[in-house]
Write a structure and sequence with these properties.
alpha+beta, 9 helices, Immunoglobulin-like, about 600 residues, about 20% helix, Jelly Rolls, TIM Barrel, eight-stranded parallel barrel, binds (2S,3S,4S,5R)-3,4,5-trihydroxy-6-oxo-oxane-2-carboxylic acid, 32 strands, 3 domains
Length: about 600
């Protein structure tokens, strides 16, 4: 799906601002017949949760409604008028002037409606019902629990199977945009290392079939270096500036459409000449091994929650550069489109992750419900298969042209040790590779319950991305023991899959900023540094390790529980992005690696 761009033939109108808002009870009507009464004010985009005080407000389970007026002019209706939501978490039902437009399931990917007919010239009432429940049919997954306490009415609670706060609402930008009646619907463009490229431009609308398409390629300076015609084609540039982490050279494919109904449309899509491959236990960018230095992140900032925050996005990229990182994983859901654009421009490599976390019948926010170690039945219990295919298709459709995306992750820490995991994931990994016009490598990120002996999915992955917390959730305080266990496990994974690159997708220790301990006790800044040093020393001994992603870039909000003090504190930066001591250790380590890579 194309990003809503303003071009010579397209207008874009932001609907971001302050909307009317109300939390709804189970018996409240959701038919949008009447204008919303007794509303409070709510900024869009944002998570709704931290805007007003009160635990009942923040932790509301179920439905809520957003409403605003939308003005439409005759010019906006002269072609095709679209209403686009970049994300609504987790389910949306949208109405215009009380008439249903449709719905969307999945809280981290865009959807849109053609409202050319439904919109009236003048004032329109736009109503969006949002549902925030996570259960065994949603991604991410959770549990809806009915609880009875003596003498009290029944309570309904929604427990995430994942360790980040279940922020919800209209969390990314909303806009109207126009296109001509016949229009450019989608663009696929790909450039290779040898200067060859290919494109496919899909037209939509009444006169799409005979529409004439022409394309131009603009180099990073904006000079036209190729002109061609046709909805599909390929070509070759004799001199090309490759896209890589040090030189994120971006080209543009400028597509133009002329249709028999008089429509003329144009759209410019950025792309890079670059190739991702896997060779000798390494991820390669443009044929050269690239060691991934970086983090698992979250979209999580004070007040906005998981809501779009471009100030923090730019700041985070600046901090990644400062610390010498070259990559991150969009744990545990696809991030906003603007972040991927920033990564294209700044040369940051992305592991793009589907919102599939919590796929384990025994997971709670921070551990196992049944800690006995015997788990089974996840793949009968989870009813996420079809939705999982949908989110993968939508993620690839949105992100396919971004040069920054080098690896797809179809899930984080599912029950990959249980019977049924291979059957569940094999089709999904095949789907993500086949949906992607570039056929990028794919993986799923596994947890410590899925060991070299029990993991059912290792062979399905192009890269083994594993999360380990030796020295934290076990062997705590004993970093020598933790490092020995880590090394042993990595060696056994390597023995099992000798050709596959292996990287740590997560490792980290909760650290309270400002807490110091001469004996490097748990939670101190000293322990975090020593923990990271212990892991680094293991990685440095194993040539097949292809990357290190620390958990987490910054402290972040989680569900309340006794293992979390105002959230997860494994950040190398605090939630407001101040560095902990470990930031300076990682800066030194990673900048040295970078200098070595660049031959300095
Ligand atoms: C994990 C999860 C991540 C958690 C982390 C932790 O394995 O993938 O979402 O936040 O552990 O800190 O426990």
């Amino acid at each position: 799906m194309l990003y809503p761009q303003m071009t010579q033939t397209r207008m874009r109108f932001s609907l971001d601002g302050v909307w009317d808002f109300k939390l709804l009870g189970a018996d409240d009507s959701k038919d949008a017949k009447e204008p919303l009464a007794d509303a409070i004010l709510m900024p869009v985009p944002s998570s709704y949760n931290d805007i007003y005080e009160g635990r009942d407000f923040r932790d509301h389970v179920g439905d809520m409604v957003y409403e605003r007026e939308v003005m439409v002019t005759p010019a906006m209706k002269s072609g095709r008028l679209m209403l686009r939501f970049a994300s609504v978490t987790h389910k949306a039902q949208v109405y215009l002037n009380g008439t249903p437009l449709g719905g969307h399931k999945g809280g981290f990917l865009p959807f849109e409606f053609d409202i050319t007919e439904a919109a009236v010239i003048g004032s329109n009432r736009l109503t969006v019902y949002v549902n925030n429940i996570v259960d065994n049919t949603t991604l991410p997954a959770g549990r809806l629990v009915h609880q009875q306490f003596p003498g009290l009415p029944e309570e309904v609670h929604n427990f995430p199977n994942f360790d980040f706060y279940n922020y919800s609402g209209i969390m990314r930008p909303v806009c109207l945009y126009t296109t001509p009646k016949t229009y450019i619907e989608d663009i696929v463009v790909q450039g290779k290392m040898d200067g060859s490229f290919s494109w496919r431009v899909t037209a939509g609308g009444a006169a799409a079939e005979n529409a004439r398409i022409s394309v131009r390629i603009l180099d990073p300076k904006g000079s036209c270096v190729f002109e061609g015609a046709g909805s599909e084609g390929a070509g070759h540039l004799s001199e090309v500036l490759l896209w890589d982490t040090e030189h994120p050279n971006l080209y543009q494919l400028e597509a133009s459409l002329q249709a028999e109904d008089g429509s003329a449309d144009c759209y410019a899509e950025s792309f890079g000449f670059r190739e991702v491959s896997i060779k000798d236990c390494r991820i390669c960018l443009n044929g050269k091994p690239v060691y991934l230095r970086g983090f698992g992140k979250h979209e999580d900032t004070p007040v906005n929650g998981r809501g779009f925050n471009q100030v923090y996005n730019v700041k985070d990229i600046a901090l990644l550069k400062w610390i010498g990182a070259n990559s991150f994983r969009t744990s545990h859901y696809p991030y906003c489109e603007e972040m991927l654009d920033l990564c294209d421009r700044e040369g940051i490599l992305i592991i793009d992750e589907a919102p599939a976390v919590g796929l384990h019948s025994q997971f709670s926010a921070t551990g196992m419900i049944d800690a006995s170690g015997k788990h089974e039945g996840t793949w009968e219990y989870m009813k996420t298969g079809e939705h999982h295919r949908d989110v993968i298709r939508e993620m690839v459709a949105r992100d396919k042209n971004h040069p920054c995306v080098i690896l797809w992750s179809v899930a984080n820490e599912p029950a990959s040790e249980e019977e049924g995991a291979k059957e569940y994931f094999e089709p999904l990994l095949n789907l993500v590779r086949s949906e992607d016009p570039q056929h990028r490598p794919a993986t799923l990120v596994t947890y410590e319950g899925s060991s070299p002996d029990t993991c059912k999915v290792a062979e399905l992955c192009d890269v083994l991305v594993i999360n380990r917390y030796r020295g934290w959730y076990d062997t705590e305080g004993n970093l020598r023991g933790a490092a020995a266990k880590l090394k042993d496990e990595l060696e056994r994974f390597h023995k099992r899959c000798p050709d596959k690159p292996i990287m740590l997708g997560e490792y980290g220790a909760d650290t309270i900023a400002g807490m110091h301990d001469i004996n490097e006790g748990l939670f101190s800044e000293e322990y975090q540094v020593s923990f990271l040093k212990a892991y680094s020393s293991v990685f440095d001994q194993l040539p097949y390790i292809t990357g290190e992603h620390i958990w987490n870039f910054a402290d972040f909000a989680t569900a309340e529980n006794i293992k979390r003090v105002q959230g997860n504190k494994k950040g190398i930066f605090t939630r407001t992005r101040e560095p902990k001591m470990a930031a300076f250790y990682m800066k030194e380590r990673w900048n040295k690696m970078k200098e070595k890579e660049n031959g300095v």
